[in-house]
Structure formats: C-alpha cells, structure tokens
Write a structure and sequence with these properties.
This protein is mainly α and 224 residues long. The protein has one domain: Up-down Bundle (Glycerol uptake facilitator protein). It has eight helices and two strands.
Length: 224
Amino acid sequence: MASKLSHALVAEFVGTFALVFVGAGAGALGLGGLVGVALAHGLTVLVFAYAYGHLSGAHVNPAVTVGVWAAGKMDARRALSYIVFQLVGGLAAAYALLWLLGGPVGNLGAGALARSLEVGGATVTVSPTGAFFLEALLAFFLANTVLNAGISGKAGNLAGVAIGLTFTLNILVGGPLTGAIFNPARQLGPALAAGQFAHLPLYLIAPLVGGAAAAVLYRTVLAK
C-alpha cells in the first residue's frame, strides 16, 4: 500500500505540474486566444487521465480529490496526501514558468475577475459573489464528470475524453469572466509566483465547495 500511494503521489505531482505549466503558460502567453487556452488545459487533462489514471485517478485538482473523498471513494489520509502534492506541483510549475519567461508575464495565467468585458455592446463585470458561484459551479461540473464517468466506470475507456472535454467547455464559458480556474492548485502557484493575491481565498475555497456538492449529488442520488 505504501508503494502504491507513493506512485500515486508522484503521478499527482507530475500531472498537476503539467496542467499548470501548460495551461497557465498558454494563458500567460495568450496562445490561440480563449479556444487555445481551453484546449491547452483540456488536452493536458485528457493526456494525463490516460497516462496516470491507473496510478492515482489523475485528479490533478484538490476540488476533484475533495469530491472523490466526500463521495466515499477514498480515505481522508490519501486525499490529504493528494492535495499536498497537487499544491506543491502547481507551485513548482508556476515558479518554473516565472524563471522561463523571465518575469510574471500575463500574471502567469492566474485568474482574475472581469471588470469591463464588452459583450454585445454591454459592459459585463463580475462580483466576488458571482465569481464564487461560477468557480464552484465549474468545479461541480468537473467533479460530476469524474464521479459519473470515471469513478463509476460507466464511461469505460472514454472517461478521460469526457473529463478533458469538461475542462475545455468550462474554460470556454468561464474564461472571460474569472479565468475559469476551478482548481486551487492551478491558482495558488501562479498567484504566489506573480504576486497576484486579489480574491485568492475565493479561488481556493469555491472549487472545494463545488467538488463537495457534486459528491453529495452522486452519493445521495446518482450512485443509487
């Protein structure tokens, strides 16, 4: 069991590092616009779902881990270990980006609330309450897919595709509003490395709420 846990923790560290390095890096550089950033995140998650799914489940997101734990599919000690290695992986990736880019280019892809987004001639702003709701909802969608497509085994070999596409779709709708982070490890590393602490508690707590809500739905309704 110790050996299996150690393998899982390495998988979570590397997978989260890759997600933050590729996803946040694409966001910082603005590669391909919103679609490019969404695909960078989604494809990274898809790849590591197949690379490391058999080792750790490839959560690469504390919100997913909280959801799996709250659904009764892993014990608290293992869940806490996952979260620690995910956060460390995100921090390592962010500081690697900081070094590679020579500075906090594009705030290293850290999320931020939309202040003056022009949509159809109207100016859209996002309040902290609205951002909390959105980040929690996006994490809910992701954890819901993980639990019902991956953990349940109903999607079979296509679970990784479903999870990766959920990540992509979340960013397409939420990216312009909050950056669509819905992952504490994805926000913490870039925020610390770039010195961007605005609304950090929101980005850390909201996804955990969403992941737990998905677990409640799964455990009380869908799993039965």
